[in-house]
Design goal:
Shape: elongated
Number of strands: 5
Mean pLDDT: 96
Order of helices and strands: EHEEHEHEHHH
Radius of gyration: 17 Å
Strand content: 15-25%
Largest sheet: 5 strands, parallel
CATH topology of the largest domain: Rossmann fold
Bound molecules: flavin mononucleotide
Low-confidence stretches: none
Structural class: alpha/beta
Number of helices: 6
């Protein structure tokens, strides 16, 4: 089984997940590891990942997903506002519409990913104007929670996900 790991990462969180996935597939035939290219590498399994940009995968990843037919696909992502399976499910539902029904979806994985400090600075400016804004308080708490991810626990979760969703389902 030839495996292509294709990802989009702006600040390195999603790239870190991609590297952890690769580490757990050391014995397998990884034919490609990197950003999406105009012509997709030929593989049997596509492990595709993106950071979350305004609620969706990045355009280059969406375009890559649309091109894949009759293959196995596993999806991974990072998101700033994370921590809840329900949120991740919603994000994946949005990504999934770009996957052709001829493919087999092996599963999806998300974890939280730290956001740039400017985001927190903006929240802090806003809360000076509206000190009682409950949404802003939650957003700042969430920013702090995200700032330590991806972490060791996420790394372990990646390992389990690769074992259960990729190795067990498709390669053994
Ligand atoms: C312009 C921009 C838009 C974002 N939109 C969302 C979003 O809609 N939902 C979310 O959960 N996180 C959002 N984030 C947070 C990133 O998805 C998150 O920090 C991610 O881990 C970044 O991954 P990377 O380091 O691989 O680029 C956004 C970040 C930026 C910079």
């Amino acid at each position: 089984m030839r495996i292509a790991i294709i990802y989009s990462s702006k600040t390195g969180n999603t790239k870190m997940i991609a590297e952890w996935i690769k580490e757990n597939l050391q014995k397998e035939d990884i034919v490609y590891f990197g950003n999406p290219t105009e012509e997709l590498p030929n593989a049997d399994i596509y492990i595709i990942g993106s950071w979350t940009d305004k609620g969706n995968a990045t355009n280059d990843i969406v375009e890559a997903l649309k091109k894949i037919k009759n293959k196995k696909i596993a999806y991974f992502g990072t998101a700033g506002f994370g921590g809840s399976e329900e949120y991740y499910k919603k994000l994946f539902e949005r990504v999934k519409v770009n996957i052709d029904s001829s493919n087999e979806i092996l599963g999806y994985f998300y974890c939280q990913g730290k956001m740039p400090m400017q985001v927190k600075e903006r929240y802090e400016q806003m809360i000076i104007q509206n000190p009682e804004d409950a949404h802003l308080k939650v957003a700042i708490e969430n920013f702090d929670e995200a700032s330590i991810h991806p972490d060791e626990e996420d790394k372990n979760n990646v390992k389990t996900w690769v074992e259960c969703n990729i190795l067990n389902k498709s390669l053994l």
